[in-house]
Amino acid sequence: MSTIFGVPAPALYGQILIGLINGSFYAMLSLGLAVIFGLLRVINFAHGAQYMLGAFAAYLILNYAGIGYWPALILAPLIVGAIAVVIERFMLSRLYGIDPLYGLLLTFGLALILEGAFRYWFGAAGQPYAAPSQLTGAVNLGFMFMPIYRGWVVIASLVVCLGTWLLIEKTQLGAYLRAATENATLVQAFGVNVPLLLTLTYGLGAALAAFAGVLAAPIYQVSPLMGSNLIIIVFAVVVVGGMGSILGAIVTGYMLGVLEGLTKVFYPEASSIVIFVIMAIVLLVRPAGLFGQEE
Predict the structure, then answer these.
(1) 173-195 b/e with 16+ CB inside 10 Å = b?
(2) What is the pLDDT of residues 55-104, one digit of tens each?
(3) Is 157 left (phi over 0), alpha (psi -120 to 50) or beta?
(4) How many CB atoms lie under 10 A from the CB of residue 229?
(5) Which of 165, 187, 245, 291 is least enclosed by beta carbons within 10 angstroms?
(6) Do 220 and 267 form a contact (C-beta atoms < 8 A)?
(7) Is 4 helix (H, G, I), strand (E, B) or coil?
(8) What topology does CATH give the domain 3-285?
(9) Could you tell me the residue ranges of all domains in the chain?
(10) pTM greater than 0.85
């Protein structure tokens, strides 16, 4: 059996694939957080709960409406995005312009309420959610067998992340959003409905989390705890990439996911803390993050 740096090649490739899959979820979730913080200046601690809601939305519409995986990829983000729009309009919008701590506390409270409610209804154990038949099985890449569904997760997340980056950075709508964060009064004077833009931005960030939840459901099962188990890591990814940096969230998510996978091969004991160690080092060297802008 061939080895690389003393490690069996199949084990190394397998962990790189796992790192890419984890990095896909880190990238999508940190992207949603970065969009919300960068444009609304809200630290959305409910993001993990919205990720969980996306998975549960897919699970519930399958079991109660018979709607399968492919429609759920569209319906679940729309459902969770609509819930987020209501939250923004009636709760978060009242906190703009004051200490961001209040937004963090509100979203943290919402996350606890949602997680507690779903634990009461469904218990803490995970619920199975099958991958679509078109994505079952594995493909031989020559150096390893790659499960088709996991390859789909990596490709789908890349497309969604790049599409979101293009929307924010390269379109007129994105220009309005960025301008509204700098000078909302001036942008509104040009006839742009700034409150609606902010509402849709929060809905978009939540929809990204829900999309990630649907992708994760066949891999990790559907559990009320799936969001809380991930959100701390995602916040660390956002800090390393730079708070509010769209590109930083994407690149850092994949990079840290792969690095975490490699750590499991070469030094397994450190795999659970490597992301936080990197976060501490980055904060010491560059407090604004790798892609953030210094004040």
Answers:
(1) ebeebebbbeebeebeeeebebe
(2) 999 999 999 999 999 999 999 999 999 999 999 999 998 888 788 889 99
(3) alpha
(4) 12
(5) 165
(6) no
(7) strand
(8) ABC transporter involved in vitamin B12 uptake, BtuC (1.10.3470)
(9) 3-285
(10) yes
